[in-house]
Amino acid sequence: xxxxxxxxxxxxxxxxxxxxxxxxxxxxxxxxxxxxxxxxxxxxxxxxxxxxxxxxxxxxxxxxxxxxxxxxxxxxxxxxxxxxxxxxxxxxxxxxxxxxxxxxxxxxxxxxxxxxxxxxxxxxxxxxxxxxxxxx
Length: 136
Hints:
This protein has 136 residues and is mostly beta strands. The chain has a domain at 61-133: Immunoglobulin-like, CATH 2.60.40. It contains no helices and nine strands. The strands form three sheets. A four-stranded antiparallel sheet has the order 5-4-7-8, with no helix packed on it. A three-stranded mixed sheet has the order 6-3-9, with no helix packed on it. A two-stranded antiparallel sheet has the order 1-2.
């Protein structure tokens, strides 16, 4: 007597996952009311999971701050500035006096960009405030 058994099992699986999303948010923060004497810097945080903002007053001094002036020495007001330190990129604006401040950035050597110009800046606690001059 001869018994022959054969068993073949075939399993195949295919899976595809595509994820695309984009998200943007805008917030406008007005200035303080007349007579207000408290802090005026406000940190804004964006929660990308719940699509909401959170605001807080800073509890630490800025990690980078300074003033931007034009070639005549006048403040460069309300211009976008970007601070890059290693792989961290932060964006803000100069105030009406040309001053900028960045909070919670890593310490080290960084680059400050404004109007397609770049400046090398030191970043960290207790770094002196610098005045940067835009030239033509």
